[in-house]
């Protein structure tokens, strides 16, 4: 009989579940018929799914003004709990003027055939905000070249706050990676069933390569299990599609990883490219999934040159280990060294760059578009073939 160990507590103390079932769900569907509808953006849809399943615990809905202001300026909710990314619902000034405090709204996602009902929002507050202040604090830039800033500037001028009652998860939750879309409650149950006490989470928006494999396996040496958790929400247009990235993991797991020590699931969040702040955000979410440790790579969630090389590591110093409640594992940039004959990092390799096998994203795309397999020192041939098919 497997011994059951105490699990890490969800962020804020309680794992949230905002999904309605049975009579309550049916009543909400009928209630929604006469409500004003809010059409959600891709980011809103991803956030709503994460709130519904508890991945963003302790949030029960979109942030009220006190929480929003505290997060933007202090990286904490109004009650002092660490939280680094605003989770908000923006509408136009015109629509905001029509909406009253206490009003209920139907939240819908756009579909090819029109709209699909997802949830009801009970509006507890509405407020205006300064997009440039949010951009500077969260993204460390006000430049529209930054994808997160560009998305922020396009959204509405009024933020709506309130708890959500979720009638149905987004359509993508049923059609995209449904068999890998574990909720936090499900991952926790799997960890308990497998007897894992220490679990490390790995976040990625890129296909797996040998450096990733090295980091994951190094971390696995000190824990019981590894949650491979590629992000499958909205990313930049030039990022590798989620389906290709997930397939790249599936292509090598059975041959190069111990099945009893690894769980592959998908993370439904959208990328914000908020660098250091997003590293904390990703860690808190994985804590809700039941991870006790979290891998933080160099330039985690970075884009362009907006963040310093080690900023995603240094930001963890602004919180105590007790209030974060999850242990970060910091890793250097790793690569294959021909002279060392293995994957190494700047901490362990004494050789100059001429011995290092490092490819930029542009070089990877160029090789694949020419039908060339990537060097085996860079990634497994199985992954190269998956990426090549994806390019076609």
Write the layout of secondary structure elements.
Layout: H1 22-32, E1 36-39, H2 42-53, E2 61-62, H3 65-74, E3 89-91, H4 93-98, E4 104-111, E5 114-122, E6 125-128, H5 131-139, H6 147-154, E7 158-166, H7 171-175, H8 184-194, E8 199-204, H9 210-220, E9 225-230, H10 242-256, E10 262-264, H11 276-288, E11 293-296, H12 311-314, H13 321-324, E12 327-330, E13 334-337, E14 342-345, E15 356-357, H14 361-369, H15 381-391
Parallel strand pairs: 1-4, 8-9, 8-11, 9-10, 11-12
Antiparallel strand pairs: 2-7, 3-7, 4-5, 5-7, 6-7, 13-14, 13-15
Helix pairs in contact: 5-6, 10-15
Explain the overall architecture:
The protein has helices at 22-32, 42-53, 65-74, 93-98, 131-139, 147-154, 171-175, 184-194, 210-220, 242-256, 276-288, 311-314, 321-324, 361-369, 381-391, and strands at 36-39, 61-62, 89-91, 104-111, 114-122, 125-128, 158-166, 199-204, 225-230, 262-264, 293-296, 327-330, 334-337, 342-345, 356-357. The chain is an alpha/beta fold and 392 residues long. It folds into 3 domains: 22-174, Roll (Sulfate adenylyltransferase), CATH 3.10.400; 178-331, Rossmann fold; 332-392, no CATH class. The strands form 3 sheets. Strands 1, 2, 3, 4, 5, 6 and 7 form a 7-stranded mixed β-sheet that branches. Helix 5 (131-139) runs antiparallel to helix 6 and helix 10 (242-256) runs antiparallel to helix 15. The longest helix has 15 residues, at 242-256. The protein is globular. The model has no long low-confidence stretch (mean pLDDT 95).
């Amino acid at each position: 009989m497997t011994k059951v160990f105490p699990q890490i507590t969800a962020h804020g103390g309680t794992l949230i579940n905002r999904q309605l079932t049975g009579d309550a769900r049916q009543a909400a569907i009928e209630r929604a018929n006469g409500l004003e509808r809010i059409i959600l953006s891709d980011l809103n849809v991803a956030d709503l799914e994460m709130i519904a399943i508890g991945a963003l615990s302790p949030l029960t809905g979109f942030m009220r003004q006190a929480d929003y202001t505290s997060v933007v300026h202090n990286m904490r909710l109004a009650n002092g709990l660490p939280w680094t990314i605003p989770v908000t619902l923006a509408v136009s000034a015109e629509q905001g003027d029509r909406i009253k405090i206490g009003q209920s709204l139907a939240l819908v996602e756009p579909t090819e055939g029109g709209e699909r009902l997802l949830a009801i929002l009970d509006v507890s507050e509405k407020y205006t905000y300064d997009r440039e202040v949010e951009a500077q604090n969260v993204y460390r830039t006000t430049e529209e070249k930054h994808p997160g800033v560009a998305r922020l500037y396009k959204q509405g001028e009024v933020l709506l706050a309130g708890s959500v009652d979720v009638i149905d998860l987004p359509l993508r939750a049923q059609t995209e990676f449904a068999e890998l879309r574990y909720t936090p409650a499900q991952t926790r149950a799997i960890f308990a069933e497998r007897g894992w006490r220490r679990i490390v989470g790995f976040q990625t928006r890129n296909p797996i390569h040998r450096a990733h494999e090295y980091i994951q396996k190094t971390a696995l040496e000190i824990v019981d299990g590894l949650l491979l958790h590629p992000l499958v929400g909205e990313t930049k247009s030039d990022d590798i599609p989620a389906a290709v990235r997930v397939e790249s993991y599936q292509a090598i797991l059975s041959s190069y990883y111990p099945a009893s020590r690894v769980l592959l699931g998908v993370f439904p969040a959208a990328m914000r490219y908020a660098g250091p702040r997003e590293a904390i955000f990703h860690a808190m979410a994985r804590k809700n999934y039941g991870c006790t440790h979290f891998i933080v790579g160099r330039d985690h969630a970075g884009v362009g040159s907006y963040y310093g090389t080690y900023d995603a590591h240094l930001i963890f110093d602004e919180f105590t280990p007790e209030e974060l409640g999850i242990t970060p594992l910091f890793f250097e940039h790793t690569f294959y060294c021909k002279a060392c004959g293995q994957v190494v990092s700047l901490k362990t390799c004494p050789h100059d760059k001429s011995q290092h096998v490092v490819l930029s994203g542009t070089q990877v795309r160029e090789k694949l578009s020419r039908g060339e397999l990537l060097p085996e020192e860079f990634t497994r041939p199985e992954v190269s073939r998956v990426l090549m098919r994806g390019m076609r």
